[in-house]
Amino acid sequence: MTELASMEFHPQPQAGEPKPWAFPAPERGSLDNGLTVLRCHRPGQQVVAVEVLLDAPLDAEPAGLDGVATIMARAFSEGTDKHSAEEFAAELERCGATLDAHADHPGVRLSLEVPVSRLAKALGLVADALRAPAFADSEIERLVRNRLDEIPHELANPSRRAAKELSKELFPADSRMSRPRQGTEETVAAIDSGAVRAFYEKHVRPATATAVVVGDLTGVDLDALLGDTLGTWTGSAAEPRPVPPVSADDTGRVVIVDRPGAVQTQLLIGRTGADRHDGVWPAQVLGTYCLGGTLTSRLDRVLREEKGYTYGVRAFGQVLRSAPDGTGAAMLAISGSVDTPNTGPALQDLWTVLRTLAAEGLTDAERDVAVQNLVGVAPLKYETAAAVASTLADQVEQYLPDDYQAALYRRLAATGTVEATAAVVNAFPVDRLVTVLVGDAAQIKEPVEALGIGEVTVVAAE
Amino acid sequence: MPMGHTATAQADSGGLTATEHRLANGLRVVLSEDHLTPVAAVCLWYDVGSRHEVKGRTGLAHLFEHLMFQGSAQVKGNGHFELVQGAGGSLNGTTSFERTNYFETMPAHQLELALWLEADRMGSLLAALDEESMENQRDVVKNERRQRYDNVPYGTAFEKLTALAYPEGHPYHHTPIGSMADLDAATLEDARAFFRTYYAPNNAVLSVVGDIDPEQTLAWIEKYFGSIPSHDGKPVPRDGTLPEVIGEQLREVVEEDVPARALMAAYRLPEDGTRACDAADLALTVLGGGESSRLYNRLVRRDRTAVAAGFGLLRLAGAPSLGWLDVKTSGDVEVPVIEAAVDEELARFAEEGPTAEEMERAQAQLEREWLDRLGTVAGRADELCRYAVLFGDPQLALTAVQRVLEVTAEEVQEVAKARLRPDNRAVLVYEPTAADAAESTDENEEAAK
After folding, report:
1. B147, B192, B196, B373: which to substitute to probe chain A, counting the most A Cβ within 10 Å?
2. Which end of chain A has fewer beta carbons closer than 10 Å to its terminal beta carbon, N or C?
3. Could you tell me which residues belong to the region Disordered (chain A) (predicted)?
4. Which region holds residue B33: left if phi is over 0, alpha if psi is between -120 and 50, else beta?
């Protein structure tokens, strides 16, 4: 105890007076071409974030062409009527900008980040890409081949492989959600520049698009700047698109994706449940955090900090698609990796945690800490322009009001222990979870069968 | 007593300022005010990393970092995590070759709690450290190793390249994660000795950045850290100096169950903190950063022989930095085709240097990366500690971007010519095997433990 003798100890300090902070309220408007614009001034954020949302969801992809939305998204940065593909990339990087584009169930999203001093030039390039993309045969051909080359890398990655299998298990085969977002080898190979252009012409227009601009806009004449760039993009009007309902089969069962020799088992245990249009969402967020939001949550308290089976297991809810009529859904899941010999014991403990939670509920102390964390971290989480822009864009994509996030913090603070318990128990019922295990079937199948958590089937990794 | 340093913005620091102080026990303190958001970042760098580890105990610095979250005299069990998260903060720690850092980002009114927690473990970790924590975190870290390195394709590439680029016995020959055998061999007494040797106020820098009152913050730091005794138990670290170039091409071919062939290489580059290192950063950016780089244009766009191609820079202050090339081949393309194209592009670049436009692009990219890093209080706190620990002057963090912008095309060409040569690299080639062959390899590894 010599170590104790030398230092002067003081009692744990009390918190000071909290300073007010609120999730920023954007200003909403539109350009003459129908483009919706959300803007938000964030003092000090010299790197401006711009998100452009296009109403080109994956379920709009023609049959047999899964992946065409992804190829189109990537092709936006592969040349325009003014620049070749190489020139376009060079011009963007000359602005110090990054431009990412990806396609997901709700639509295609372009994310630009650029120092405010070069915002005008970078926005001009993005406007060119949306207004007059080249979609040159040779560039599309290259993107298709590149995408085909990526697929084996994804299949070899345990967590990506698990996600692919869970989607296939949960959703009916005719649902776009059952199939990989970026297409399969067969469907991607069928994509050409004609298919990309047809998809673009049918689904991309300013009237159904939204741009979100966030950053330190001091001295920036954003109206003029937008008018000169995204304002020059034209297109026809369009009817709002119906959102297809999400359905899923969450009969409790286990699928092992066999990876002989794997030193760990990747687990992904999931189903679908309430999304943000459901009043239960704040309670579900709170309860899910208590179950598996951090290393002091229930799952890691046992699986990591007591047993050492894992580097970390997390529970989360992630919106798949959302609609005001309540037909949307979120993926509710538990994921992590456990070492191969302890796969059976780890799953047994995991189920015990869920059963105990259902039987005994959360404690008030757990609920309080969770609220303090979820609400308290907001100012940290939204320090950068990119974080604010991304959340504002999510809200638009999910048909939520612009003040949704600000209100969510108030609703979280008002959610009680009983509500949070009910929500998380309903979200993760022990007999209605689909378990995907990517690991060595020869070693893990028998112990997993012995758990009685559902019928076990084994599929090949490739 | 704390020593003040004026907070006047230096030219080209983007208006950011920092003040420096030193407690009587040797703890260096850097403070930087920014009242835009009600948050405060606390960052503590200990001048110890995997380069200080000895043979047979690789991975100890990182395993020890985990133990720092297992409680101290006044903090029970996982209390460090629970208290910070319960206060609306976020936190973590990381271990690299050259340092171990611990950080909390707090709502501004909870700053004092983070300082109290860091001081408690700096001064009294051994009061709580026991066999149970040691055994548990050993298992957690072994699972971290499996998850991040052993169970993913190409996961051990960096470890293999490092082992090639720095010779046997060199302090940077092994990576911070360590080997399974050494993680198994580490004892509680090793951990205790490690703490007694390296965890002392005079071997650390503490930075606090954000919505703070500097005077009050300094008073809290004095109150909580001031009585922690310093000591001079730290041995002089082993010398990491190496010749500027390797002098031959080192090579290893790995046959593993990977999805595609790959060519990776590590080039020995100038040490961090030098103008030549900034020039090397620019050279690697022109050659292999982003989608307008020379290698991307050549291999991915024109030849269409690669699915991805790029260069990264691992900046190191105590040994040569590493320029890390990573190319994954497309379809059935063979590695020699890629290698010939890479050599041709590097030779051409050494011959002609960057164009004015390439310089502009590379500098704009690195400038944005710096703005990103300094754009959050946590990023700024980490950079201030980095420059204080590695180069003795935190103020250098605030002018780093300016130094990158001052590098000339001639300097970029010079470093490329001197360093980006076939006789200054370690090459790692991946050749995929059938899945059944990989299975027996893994079994052999298990048996070897």
Report:
1. B147
2. N
3. 1-27
4. beta
Give tens-digit pLDDT for B329-365: 999 999 999 999 999 999 999 999 999 999 999 999 9
CA distance B382 to B370: 12
Q: Taking residues B144-170, report their average pLDDT.
A: 96
Closest CA to A105 of A144, A166, A61, A161: A61
Q: What is the pLDDT of residues B316-329, one digit of tens each?
A: 999 999 999 999 99
Which residues in chain A come in under a pLDDT of 50? 1-4
Q: What is the pLDDT of residues B4-50, one digit of tens each?
A: 444 455 555 667 899 999 999 999 999 999 999 999 999 999 999 99
Share of chain B above pLDDT 70, in %: 93
| Alpha-carbon span B141 to B178, nearest angstrom | 10
ipTM of this model? 0.95
Distances in whole angstroms, Cα of residue A238 to Cα of each of A60, A205, B370: 14, 8, 42
Q: Strand pairing of A434-439 and B425-432?
A: unpaired
CA distance B116 to A236: 61
Pairing of strands A310-321, A264-273: unpaired
- Residue B97 CA to residue A139 CA, distance in Å, equals 42
DSSP assigned state of B69: T
Helix axis angle for A137-156 and A193-203, nearest 10°, is 90
Q: Does B250 touch chain A (CB under 8 A)?
A: no
| Strand-pair category, B250-256 with B425-432 | parallel
Residues 6+ apart with CB under 8 A from B176: B49, B50, B59, B61, B62, B95, B96, B97
- The one-letter amino acid code at B296 reads Y
**Burial of residue B326 (number of CB atoms within 10 Å: 0-12, 13-18, 19+):** buried
Residues B332 and B289 sit within 8 Å (Cβ to Cβ):
no
A152 with B259: Cβ contact below 8 A = yes
Residue pair B120/A395 in contact (Cβ under 8 Å)? The answer is: no
Asked about B104 being catalytic, the answer comes back as no
B357 touches chain A (CB under 8 A): yes
Residue to mutate among A149, A182, A188, A367, with most B CBs inside 10 A, is A149
For A158, the token pair is 């345990």
pLDDT of B435 higher than 80: no
If we measure between CA atoms, which residue out of A2, A50, A152 comes closest to residue A461?
A152
State how far the Cα of A438 lies from the Cα of A459, in Å rounded to an integer.
10
* Statement: residue B441 has pLDDT above 50: no
pLDDT at B436 over 80: no
Residue burial B169-195, b: 16+ Cβ < 10 Å; e: rest: ebbbbbbbbbbbebbeebeeebbbebb
Query: Which among B74, B227, B259 has CB closest to A12?
Result: B74
B303 interfacial to chain A (CB closer than 8 Å)? no
pLDDT in tens, B179-218: 999 999 999 999 999 999 999 999 999 999 999 999 999 9
Nearest partner of B17 among B9, B26, B5, B25, judged by Cα: B9
- Closest residue on chain A to B330 (Cα): A149
Cβ neighbourhood burial of B8 (10 Å; 0-12, 13-18, 19+): exposed
Q: What is the mean pLDDT of residues B138-148?
A: 97
| Mean per-residue pLDDT over chain B, rounded | 93
Are A393 and A51 in contact, with CB atoms under 8 Å apart?
yes
Contacts of A304 in chain B (CB under 8 A): 140
Q: Are strands A455-460 and B90-95 parallel, antiparallel or unpaired?
A: unpaired
Q: How many CB atoms lie within 10 A of CB B232?
A: 9
